[in-house]
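Listing S7. Sequence submitted for prediction.
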Amino acid sequence: MPWDSAISNLGYFFLMFDRSEVYGPMQVSLYNQVNAISLACSTGLPACLELTKGWFKQWMDNPENNPIHPNLRTTVYCSAIAAGGAEEWDFGWEMFRNATIATEADKLMYALACTREPWLLKRYLEFALDPEKIRKQDATSTIVYIAGNVVGQPLAWDFVRERWEYIYTQFSTEFELKQLQRFKEDNAHVGFGSGTLAVEQAIERTTANIKWVAENKESVMNWFNSQSQRQEVV
């Protein structure tokens, strides 16, 4: 298979040319290949799906040795998990939990939202609000990723509507506010009905949380520092 052969040899080319004038054009070429594979997989091209599933299976068989090129992992992970079932999802979840590199964790967090199994997406939504499983600062990203999945969009919308009370009391950063506003805009066509007021209250509450943090962060930090110093003296 041409793609398989080309990608498997990329490591050699990077090693040989990473300090030469060839490196720039080679990066552009790789970017184009990633886009081509991503497009092919998103349209359901069988050859692409078989390729990504094969790579992912190799990784599942040997978790300590990931054969997938870093630049292709987002596409491969998403495609393989979308085409797979609980076994692929659970493996991806385990790798996400064990990831020590932030960029790798982000790729897996996104890919886990690609599954087409509603029950797995519902479970992932529940995980999003459990800080023991997913960091609080990643909760909104997880929900937005799931909402970007055709299967997950209505599930995410129902989930968020049911949990406004909890969600809006937790948000306290500018990034979270933007994500909340984006979620509202992306789902405006669905119609908020009786949930409209709750949405507006969530955004207002988040804005208030951000303002409070900005105004009190320094004094709170000073207080904790003083307590730490006092304990050291004692």
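Caption to Listing S7: primary sequence and predicted structure tokens for the chain studied. The radius of gyration is 22 Å. Residues 196-233 form the longest helix (38 residues).
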